[in-house]
Amino acid sequence: MSKFFGDPLFAAILFGVTVFVLTYLNSEKVLGFLYKRTLGQREELFRLLDKMYVDADRRKLSVSIVLLTFGLGAIVFLGLWPNIFAGLLLGTLFSLAGWSAPKIILQNMWESRCNRIVDQMVDGMTIMANGVKSGLSLTQAMERVVENIAGPLSQEFTLVLNQIRLGRSVEDALNEFGDRIPRPDVQMFVTGVNILKETGGNLAETFTTITQTVRERQKIEKRIDAMTSQGVMQAIIVTCVPFLILIMLLFVDPPFVKPLFTTPLGWFSLILMIGLQVIGGVIMKKIVTIKV
């Protein structure tokens, strides 16, 4: 009996049968979880791509998600064969990273785009204020912004102007712009314009006030970023160093770290280390993240 259990092939078959039985007994929950974490993210990814005006093939994106999720984990598992535990552990980690990576990457790209729009609003509001002072209407002032500023703000204003030309009201077009870009500065611009169109007022003065408010907010945010940049770098280094040392030892002295992947105590230590590193990284990120 000990000969069979010591055989890696027999252990792999036994593990596969166990996983199959457990998956079959909880098939509905398992399949629902896997679908939600892989193909279920497609709509969210397409929504983010549409907001960034990026055309994507739905079929290719679906295949890429599946390959990135399960294919990457399978490659890592086969690469570490016959070390079953290390293959399962690292394969699972790579699978988790694979199904989380697309959404995280696109979300970060979307956040960067929103931040760039807010940064461009200082110049955009200045151009609009000068245009209104010279006698231009709101839409004509927005056209001047499109002509003089390149980037995401120009794209958003172009969409607003196209909607107005197609018959939508200025209020509805601007409200949709505010819904697409959920930033306080954008909401302040949309709300200010809509209120002034109903009650009357000085648009140029409003745009100047918005410009000053956005500029002061940006100064505070940049000051906070400068003060917390050292803490952010320390958090990144402290989180990555243990993994880099482990990888280095795997190449320099494999027998020294072999018990970490071949003994129960090593498995427990490895899982504990990864868990503590993740917890520590999340806590440090929360400490250095200051919202204005």
Strand content: under 5%
What is the number of helical segments per DSSP (H or I, 4+ residues)?
14
Most strands sheet: none
- CATH level-3 fold name of the domain at 117-216: Receptor-associated Protein
Number of DSSP strand runs: 0
Net shape? elongated
Distance between the ends: 65 Å
Give the overall pLDDT as a whole number. Answer: 77
Structural notes for this entry:
The chain contains 14 helices and no strands. With 292 residues, it is an all-alpha fold. It has a domain of 100 residues: Receptor-associated Protein, CATH 1.20.81. Helix 6 crosses helix 7 and helix 7 packs antiparallel against helix 8. The longest helix is centred in the middle third of the chain and has 50 residues. The radius of gyration is 27 Å and the shape is elongated. The chain starts with a helix and ends with a helix. The N terminus is likely disordered.
List the helices and strands and how they pair.
Blueprint: H1 2-6, H2 8-25, H3 27-37, H4 42-51, H5 58-79, H6 84-133, H7 138-148, H8 152-165, H9 170-180, H10 184-199, H11 203-252, H12 254-257, H13 259-262, H14 264-288
Helix pairs in contact: 4-6, 5-6, 6-7, 6-11, 7-8, 8-9, 9-10, 10-11, 11-14
Descriptors for this entry?
86% helix, Receptor-associated Protein, mainly alpha, single chain, 292 residues
Provide a compact summary of the structure.
By secondary structure, this protein is mainly alpha-helical.
